[in-house]
Structure to design on (127 residues):
């Protein structure tokens, strides 16, 4: 059974930092891009960041560019999201996801291109 399990969420003040982790089990995702998405109350799930299967290419939403860093450790089947300079508008449930296509040449920011999803971890940034 394939599982993606996020951890590391919590409550932090504006300007603070958090590091999210997503551990995959049930299969290896070393050949698949991994992404992070988030969903605020009453809003649609939106793209945050993604990293190519090789780790050599990343893409970020404009709203987090320069503040967030995505990385992966294929030996541990784990992807990370380092979040710095957090703002109240970063509040939401953060989900990790695995691409549906192996070795996709160009990383995708489209949630429909991701097949496996975690259950999410709550991030709350207080003002």
């Amino acid at each position: 059974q394939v599982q993606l399990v996020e951890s590391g969420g919590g409550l932090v003040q504006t300007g603070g930092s958090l590091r999210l982790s997503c551990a995959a089990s049930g299969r290896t995702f070393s050949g698949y891009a991994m992404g992070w998405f988030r969903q605020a109350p009453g809003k649609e799930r939106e793209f945050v960041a993604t990293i190519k299967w090789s780790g050599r290419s990343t893409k970020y939403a404009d709203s987090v560019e320069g503040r967030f860093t995505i990385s992966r450790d294929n030996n541990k089947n784990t992807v990370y999201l380092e979040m710095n300079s957090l703002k109240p508008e970063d509040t939401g449930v953060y989900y990790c996801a695995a691409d549906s296509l192996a070795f996709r040449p160009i990383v995708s920011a489209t949630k429909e291109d991701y097949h496996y999803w975690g259950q999410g971890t709550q991030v709350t940034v207080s003002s």
